[in-house]
Design brief:
about 325 residues; alpha/beta; Rossmann fold; 2 domains; 6-stranded antiparallel beta sheet; 5-stranded parallel beta sheet; 12 helices; about 35% helix; about 15% strand
């Protein structure tokens, strides 16, 4: 007889790991779903928390993208924001909805999250938990194993697919019981709380708000906010200057059509992007790139410059005076 299947949101945090563990213990197969891109942090080396957690749990992990639909409700959330630009309720509704759509296509009987009643005042009170289930289309199918005994029974509990007696009644912000469970299950791979969404970070929140004010709201532009130093030119154009080798590579790989790529790595120095690639902005963009090179104090530096488009052009050279500190500070997006 085939085992029943569930799908679970797996951030890699302790709560999501324990929620899955409780369901695995009941002989149910679980597939983890994790979202990537958009305003989520970039993992440059090694496995990220969700991958490590999935390995430890012995379950498959599926990646779904943060798409344009997510960006639109960051601009205008229906259910409000947290302290910064984080529309937690709207976001959770869409994540649950999309994970459940994936699950139903793959014969999942229900969906799991690691939410704990009362852990977060805005998004994990009883009213918000009910709202997420209703608006995501998962009423009766959305199971929160860590707080299930404090909530209305779901369909898998009512039908006996899941034994409700083996679920928990955790409430509030204390993590004492979760830590005890982690020891019991020998769970060692999990991410620290509140580190998975850049919208909760004040600096990133200022960047995305400023980008929206300049109509930069595509997924591609939002993803670029995660890299480099950002400057706004008087014309309205944006310059992004890499801070290290990894960011330089990201900017090269993510340069959108119509932008200008300025390469100062031979100085040595950074890579910079000018978006859009207006001719009148190229000198200032190159000066900002030179400002963060090792030759920032020289009278002039030569930089390579390339148009990014349908047909790549060979780099040309531009010779400029590096921007001084006051100029760069006046243009920086805080």
């Amino acid at each position: 007889m085939n085992k029943p299947i569930a799908v679970a949101l797996l951030s890699g945090g302790l709560d999501s790991v324990l929620a899955i563990r409780l369901i695995l213990d009941q002989g149910i197969l679980v597939t983890g779903v994790n979202f990537s891109g958009g305003y989520l942090p970039v993992q440059h080396e090694g496995k990220d928390p969700a991958e490590r957690a999935a390995d430890q749990l012995g379950i498959p992990l599926v990646r779904l993208p943060i798409g344009q639909e997510f960006v639109e409700f960051v601009k205008a959330p229906r259910y409000g924001r947290g302290r910064n630009m984080n529309p937690c309720i709207d976001c959770h509704i869409l994540m649950v909805k999309q994970a459940w759509e994936y699950g139903t296509k793959h014969k999942a009987r229900f969906i799991i999250t690691g939410e704990v009643l009362g852990q977060r005042p805005m998004s994990q009170n009883k009213q918000s938990l009910m709202l997420v289930a209703k608006r995501s289309g998962t009423e009766g199918s959305l199971l929160r194993p860590l707080s299930a005994k404090l909530l209305e029974p779901t369909v898998p509990e009512k039908t006996g697919l899941v034994n409700r007696k083996r679920l928990l009644d955790i409430r509030g912000r204390s993590r004492k019981r979760q830590i005890e469970l982690a020891r019991k299950y020998n769970v060692t791979e999990f991410a620290e709380p509140a580190g998975g969404c850049l919208l909760t970070d004040a600096g990133f929140a200022r960047r995305i708000k400023e980008a929206f004010e300049h109509n930069e709201s595509s997924v591609e532009m939002v993803e670029l906010l995660r890299f480099g130093r950002h400057f706004r030119l008087p014309s309205g154009g944006k310059v992004i200057v890499g801070r290290n080798k990894t960011e330089n590579l990201e900017l090269q790989n993510r340069a959108p059509p119509g932008s200008i790529l300025i390469d100062g790595t031979h100085l040595p120095g950074p890579v910079a992007l000018l978006i859009p690639g207006r001719k009148r902005d190229r000198v200032m963009a190159a000066r900002l790139c030179g400002r963060y090179s090792d030759r920032r104090n020289e009278p002039e530096v030569k930089l390579k410059i390339s148009d990014i488009g349908k047909f790549q052009t060979r780099p040309s050279e531009i010779e400029v005076k590096p921007a001084n500190p006051d100029e760069s500070i006046s243009l920086v997006i805080s």
